[in-house]
Every structure is written in structure tokens, then in C-alpha cells.
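User: Before I run my own analysis I want an independent prediction to cross-check against. Here's the chain; please return only the C-alpha cells and, at the end, one sentence I can use as a sanity check.
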Amino acid sequence: MESLRVTEIFLSIQGESRTVGWPTVFVRLTGCPLRCRWCDTAYAFQGGQRRSVEEVVAQVTRFAVDHVTVTGGEPLAQPACLALLERLADTGMAVSLETSGAMDLSRVDRRVVKVMDLKPPGSGETARNRLANLDCLTPKDQVKFVIADRTDYEWSRAMVARHRLAERCEVLFSPVAGELPPRELAEWILEDRLPVRFQLQLHKLLWGDAPGR
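Assistant: C-alpha cells:
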């Protein structure tokens, strides 16, 4: 029986991506090979409890909502994440995966919406971007840039243009909380008429940095 290390499973409001605002069950898996400078979930790097895939699916379905997001850490760092995504999709729920983009996406179940980061220079992890993953994206997926400053913005804008990302899927630009004033990022997007969606982290506006929210 396949198992994973799980940091937490909780019900919240989706704070990002195309399903923002929907009641969503979050499955936060333990562990991550990256160390982004602005990471807000470092508590998930270690620890967690060993759970079987079936136990996780059973707990998720008991919340009785339509959306579930598998996140981390980096969920794909655990091989059994692929089986978990498949089993969650089998339940009929709308399943999304939040991933750093550093792991291979080619084997993710096609029913799952992939929300993939591309890491700008300010993250400290630009070298970990796996650009081959861009070929795994479909129109229902999303690419997310978390932007700390103007340098990050210029890098992100260039990546959107170079890889024609807006033609592949939806593109999300978010400011690093507490570093880049959201209004500045919004104004840069408008000045350049970028084909991207500006987003804030709704869950942080509601609950701050509290774990399990």
C-alpha cells in the first residue's frame, strides 16, 4: 500500500489561482528540495505523519466539498503523490496540484490542474526551473510567478514573451508579501499591457500566516 508523509490536511478558502474563493481541502505533503528565500511554508520541510493514500483520500472526502489542492513543500518530491492525485481525481472532485516546477510533470494525471511556479531570481532558486515542464501544460493549467522586485518582474515578463506562456495557459503574477507593494506590481502589469492575471493571496488577507489556513 502506497504511503506519503503528510504535514496537514485542512479545509480553507482557496487563496490563489483560477479557483480562488472556493471552499477547498488542502493536502500539504512534507518535504521540499528547494529553499526559496521567501518561502512561507518552511514548517513543511520536515516531520509529518506517514499516511496511506487511501487514508488521505478518505479524510479529504469527509469534508464534503468539491475542490481539493495537493501542495507542499513540493508534493512531487514524494513518488506516491502521483497515485494520490489519481485517486483524488477518481472521486470526481476538482483536483489541483501546486508545484515548484522543479519536478517532472509528465506523469501527472491529465484530470489534475497543474499550478506550476517559475522561480524568478529573487527566489534564489532560478537554476531549479525545469523548463521541459512547459511542454506538459495545457490550457486548463496555470504558471505562477512570485515577484519580489523590478528585477524579478523584468525576468518574468521576458519569460512570458520568450516561451509564449499566455498562449499555453493562464499566467499568474503575485507580489512577495511584505516586500513588493501590490499596487506597484499591478501598475507595472497595466503599463506593459501584460496578458497575465494579477493575484493576491486571499487566505493571507483573511488569516495572515497562520498554518492550516
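Sanity check: The chain has one domain: 3-207.
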